[in-house]
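Entry 12.
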Amino acid sequence: MIAVTRALAGAVKSVIDTPILSKDGNISYEAEDVYDQTVEKLPDFSQAVQEVKAINYDVKPVAAKATNTSHTSKSNTTGGITVMSGARRVFAVIMGFILASAFAEEIAISVTSDINKFLFLDSFTANKIAIWLLLCTSVTMLIGTFKRTKVEKLCGWGSGLSLFILYVQYCRSVEQMNHYIIFSIIFCIICAVIFGFFEGRKDKWNCGLYFSCEFIVMMLWPIGFLIYAFFSKFIGFSESFCLVVTSVLFFVISVLGIVGRLDD
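Predicted 3D structure (tokens):
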């Protein structure tokens, strides 16, 4: 009885200590997490209560049958919620793999404009891997409910690595344009608008923070490219050297930046 009472007191305390609304007036993710955790523990709690009631204290409940039916109904309901949440997550991962495998190669063909090397891989293979990672992780986070989980952090690593690889292709493609400065400004503005859209919904949507991280990195691509173009085309440094330096910078921004922001 003491253990059951203590567990109930802990659950009530976590509900009381967690703010229901965020600063924007929406239901906070902390409250949603507490709700999900409480719902998942209700069947175990109900089972513990039944075990306590089964002990002979020489005191019989007045409406034992009604109470048992009520608890059974609640257990079935909470169990159904848990199963649905798990099924949604599995479906999200499967759809991520399917869509990434279906479209990664075609997109890689369209964006790879030249034959170059990325480390020990050719450009097409590197772009295909990067696009596959980006599609798989993005679809998984869009469909599933993985906020504040290890899956979200793993997707952050994959997305950051893919954006780092695609930055190199971005530089190689844009430098072939006649008006690369105008294109860079337009691209930066579009990414900034999309970043602001998801940033304003990061407390409301499961995928809001994740996609805001992706687009803030892409918003920085034109800045990195203009630095690369300035030192290579106007100052006279080697193009390969400038691309390597800015790529290392974007590795830190993409991979470590996204994962670090998701951990906050």
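Annotation: The mean pLDDT is 80. Helices lie at 2-17, 29-54, 64-111, 123-143, 150-174, 180-199, 208-235, 239-263.
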